[in-house]
């Protein structure tokens, strides 16, 4: 496996089974869009319940009671509120999150050079994932704000269909700070989350190939490699949920009418750090573990189908 560019210099873009050219990065963007769009939209019922538990814990006391309350009040269609903006928003986010991670990783590795790359792999994973997420959240923000508003508004007070909801959000700009009002809390939730997600994924994959599957990675079949991908993604997801939960609670609470016009600091001090860190956490650990496992699995399955190999573990 040549690690040298045609010029004869060491080049991160030539470390994998195929060269990382524009076509490779474009496929990564498509794989990322599929991975995040499908998984986030698929767990909309859990997300609706979690948002309501964070915003109104007295009424939505847990995952199952919360699901039951929503179905009793709004029917089963209430569980799928926000499906449209979730699918579109997270497809865009995934496109940039995964699609930009790869070129940023290659760029930072080439800036660092071969020796520093081998020594400071973790720092490169963290820098590349943070850079990618910075842009991914700008794409996600207007749709995430709309999704939270749809999911936490009282039935009949806010439109549920996506385009009607987006129009309504534009009209309520002064009140909701749409389209980028939630960008700072979103960055504070998603950037640490994504850094943890990519760092621990890459790290756990490396551990698997160092201690469990000790033969060279390319000697294992696709099923084994994708199994390692799923397990690493799931474990990384659990760590992510713990890291980012307080900020996730804040994003949900910002959508609550009672918190209109309050600063993030004020909402945080009124809610209390323990409540921010724990309300809805069990649900989110299950949700994010499964979600992250499947995201990496879909992403790597797509990469494998395109002949690009799975991520990590070199």
Automatic annotation (TrEMBL):
Q: How does it sit in the membrane?
A: Multi-pass membrane protein
RNA-binding among keywords: no
Swiss-Prot/TrEMBL keywords? Membrane, Mitochondrion, Mitochondrion inner membrane, Repeat, Transmembrane, Transmembrane helix, Transport
Q: Name one GO molecular function term.
A: phosphate transmembrane transporter activity
* Gene Ontology BP term (one): mitochondrial phosphate ion transmembrane transport
Pfam families to which the protein is assigned, alphabetical? Mito_carr
Q: What is its main location?
A: mitochondrion
Note the segments forming the Solcar repeats: 23-107
Localization, per the record, is: Mitochondrion inner membrane
Q: Which domain of life is it from?
A: Eukaryota
A single GO cellular-component term from the record reads:
mitochondrial inner membrane
According to its UniProt record, which protein family does this protein belong to?
Answer: Belongs to the mitochondrial carrier (TC 2.A.29) family.
Extract the PANTHER family matched here: SOLUTE CARRIER FAMILY 25 (MITOCHONDRIAL CARRIER PHOSPHATE CARRIER), MEMBER 3, LIKE-RELATED-RELATED, SOLUTE CARRIER FAMILY 25 MEMBER 3
Q: What is this protein identified as? A: Mitochondrial carrier protein
Give the species this sequence originates from. Trametes coccinea (strain BRFM310) (Pycnoporus coccineus)
Q: What is the lineage of its organism?
A: Eukaryota, Fungi, Dikarya, Basidiomycota, Agaricomycotina
């Amino acid at each position: 496996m040549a690690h040298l560019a045609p010029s004869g210099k060491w080049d991160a873009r030539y470390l994998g089974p195929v060269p990382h050219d524009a076509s490779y990065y474009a496929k990564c963007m498509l794989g990322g869009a599929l991975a995040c769009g499908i998984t986030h939209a698929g767990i909309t019922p859990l997300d609706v319940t979690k948002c309501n538990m964070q915003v109104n814990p007295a009424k939505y006391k847990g995952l199952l009671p919360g699901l039951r309350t929503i179905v009793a009040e709004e029917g089963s269609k209430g569980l799928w509120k926000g499906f449209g903006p979730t699918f579109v928003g997270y497809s865009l986010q995934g496109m940039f999150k995964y699609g930009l991670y790869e070129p940023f990783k290659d760029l930072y590795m080439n800036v660092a050079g071969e020796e520093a790359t081998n020594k400071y792999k973790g720092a490169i994973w963290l820098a590349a994932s943070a850079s990618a997420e910075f842009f991914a959240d700008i794409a996600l923000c207007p749709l995430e704000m709309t999704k939270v508003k749809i999911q936490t508004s009282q039935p009949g007070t806010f439109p549920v269909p996506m385009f009607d909801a987006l129009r309504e959000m534009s009209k309520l700009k002064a009140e909701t700070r749409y389209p980028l009002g939630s960008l700072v809390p979103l960055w504070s939730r998603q950037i640490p989350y994504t850094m943890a997600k990519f760092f621990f994924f890459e790290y756990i994959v490396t551990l698997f190939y160092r201690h469990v599957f000790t033969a060279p990675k390319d000697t294992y079949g696709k099923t084994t490699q994708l199994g390692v991908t799923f397990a690493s993604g799931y474990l990384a997801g659990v760590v992510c949920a713990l890291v980012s939960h307080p900020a996730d609670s804040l994003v949900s609470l910002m959508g609550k009418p009672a918190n209109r016009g309050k600063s993030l600091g004020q909402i945080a001090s009124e809610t209390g750090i323990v409540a921010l860190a724990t309300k809805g956490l069990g649900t989110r650990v299950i949700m994010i573990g499964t979600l992250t496992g499947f995201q990496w699995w879909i992403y790597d399955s797509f990469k494998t189908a395109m002949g690009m190999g799975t991520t990590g573990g070199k």
